[in-house]
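dude i think i finally got it to work??
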Amino acid sequence: MKKHFKSTRVILSLTAAAVLFAGCGGEYSGLSENNSISGGAVTASAVSGQAVSGSGGYSRYTYCSDRNLYYIRDCYSEDARLVERNLEKGSERKIRVKGIHEVCYADNDWVYYTKKTEREIDGECYTVVGEVWRSPISKKDFQMDQTTEELVLRAENELGLVLSRSHVGVDHRGVQCDGRYIVFKGGEYTEDSGDEVIETPLRVYDMEKGSYVQEEIFRTDSFSFDMRETILCGGSVFLYEDEKEELVRVNLETGEMNTVASDENYSLDEFSNSFISAASETDVFWKNVEEGKEEIWQYDLKENKSSCLITNGELRELLEQRGLLKCSIGEKEHVYGSEACFVRANRLYIQVVIDGEGSCGEVCQNRVILSKELRAPDVALVFEEKLNECLANPEKRLKIFSKKWDGIYGRQSYTKKAYFKSRGFCVSMTEDECLMYLENSEKKKNMPALYDFRTDSLRFLEKGEDWLSCYLYDRNNRMLTGDPGEFFEAYDMCDRMPNNYDSLE
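look at this
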């Protein structure tokens, strides 16, 4: 089944178009004294002073310089702070930036972030996400200097740089940046009605040129412009071409457009939540799903070439070898599919969910982590022993759960009893760590945990202990795309995932 997101217009109330309601305090009420603005308002200001740099050390770690990670603490409150976390020491510095909303990107030279600004819409004052700013990183102490921040881009109309709150607070892709380009999609009112909003095409601002680019390409109805499905990667935008049902790459420098995946290698099931499963600075990955078959495909940005990295045959063979397609309560062979992909150490890790049904209608579910070396189609798919040891529910404690389970995604309405062979799942990966969400058998509750690839050790994180440093490195390398500041609240993990203490016995 193909996934379609054909959209031409939406009807939004003024509340939906605004991010937060606020009193009106003037066009520039959120700007600091030391900014790059001179004279009147601008809709797209060129970056002043230093040239745009692409020298960020952790090139695929979206929010990191070589030394620091940047994220927002309490982004929806008036007390929001930009946090600069030292990657080596783990220490944090909280920086007050008036009106800050989200970090878009960081490298060794700059930290880019969006700001909320006050706009008057139909006689009412609203606060919208309307500006992109940047602050330099000092070459002396390698810390961000907010006192010399610069305005990079301002929205052209009162609706701001994002169309709705769902593209701001839910997925962290409302405004994307890579150190040169800024990608966003807003909206504009029709002439007929002040309440009717038409979605604008994708907008790409080139900071180096100080202008919007490739507008003739994006001003078409054929593309699906959902910012949750649009990926800025390697100086290109990857997006879904709705009419031809293809995954397309647009080179932002040249305007060259290439088909990355088409009907023969690009088909999604009804539960797929993304056109692209994972992306790095060199590759883009997606799954090709048909009845009884699942493949993982890889697109090499440098070679401009797509290839099948993991075939259904090798995936099925490994699961059969491990005895994972049947369980003690299941009479029929279980079904399987990948639900998440992660890139690290020149390998693609895939989290496979396996579902079955017992003889009395019980739900049986299991999760395992597999991996394969990139650009190595002849190298065997690997069962990640140590990661799966962390995920596995010990045989002696396998029980039938009495708790009514709604499913992690809220897509299913299971009211049947459940039998879980895994005690959690993987959330994100960096080169050094894997963030998991697991049942803690000692404390008898579900908790976040960190697996350290360097020491092959697992530790549970206590309440209040920072886990964002793992979750926030890379926007395209995690299972959940939700607001990291509301990880547990947004997904109700504790309530939705049964543990061994909800059982009938």
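The two ends are 40 Å apart (CA to CA).
im so relieved honestly
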